[in-house]
Structures are given as C-alpha cells and as structure tokens.
Automatic annotation (TrEMBL):
This is Rhodanese-like domain-containing protein. Residues 16-104 form the Rhodanese domain. CDD domains: RHOD. InterPro entries: GlpE_sulfurtransferase (IPR050229), Rhodanese-like_dom (IPR001763), Rhodanese-like_dom_sf (IPR036873). The lineage of its organism: Bacteria, Pseudomonadati, Pseudomonadota, Gammaproteobacteria, Chromatiales. SUPFAM superfamilies: Rhodanese/Cell cycle control phosphatase.
Length: 107
C-alpha cells in the first residue's frame, strides 16, 4: 500500500519548511511545461540507476502528471527498502488546480 499526500497537505508542509524532498519523475518535455518549486528532476526510467540520490532518512514526495506513474515509482522504491516515500495524489494537475506555485525548470 503506497502512502499518499494531497496538494494542500504538501503545500502546508513545504510552507512549514519541513524536511521534505520533492522528486519530479516526469519526462524532460513534461517538466519544461513547469514544475513544483525546488523539486529534484529524476525521470522515472532513471530511478533504478540514480536511486542513491533519494535519501532514506527523510520524507520523499514523488509526483508526475496525474499521480499514476509516481504511484508505481513509490511502490518500486518501497520494494527497495524506502519507507518514507509518498505519492502526490493527483500529481501536478491537482497541484495546479489548487492554484499552488509552478515554476519553469532551471537549465
């Protein structure tokens, strides 16, 4: 069972400057359309070879466009021993729908 967080809860945690790592697993073309501020860009297919960049000692929120791919990524990471991964329910679509900030990716 993958743990999930909704946009409002995530926004509140980021506002409270809690130690949360955001990971955007969308493709570079999707990310070019905008991303949640301060997210780590890690395309889904690279997770197995870049897993060392994902800490096990803090909460990690993974998101994609709609929440489907990130759900799969969370399930995969949990199988690899990650206990603190959360799926952003509804993905960046839900985030944007709530009027939360989206920024252009930095080159």
């Amino acid at each position: 069972m993958v743990n999930e967080i909704d946009s409002e809860s995530l926004s509140q945690r980021l506002t409270d400057t809690e130690d949360v790592l955001l990971v955007d697993i969308r493709t570079p073309a999707e990310i070019a359309q905008g991303m949640i501020p301060d997210a780590l860009q890690l395309p889904m297919h690279l997770i197995p070879i870049r897993m060392s960049e994902i800490p096990k000692d803090r909460d990690v929120v993974i998101y994609c466009r709609s929440g489907a791919r990130s759900y799969q990524a969370c399930a995969y990471l949990m199988q690899q021993g990650y206990g603190r991964v959360l799926n952003l329910r509804g993905g960046i679509i839900a985030w944007a729908r709530h009027g939360l900030p989206i920024v252009a990716p930095e080159d």
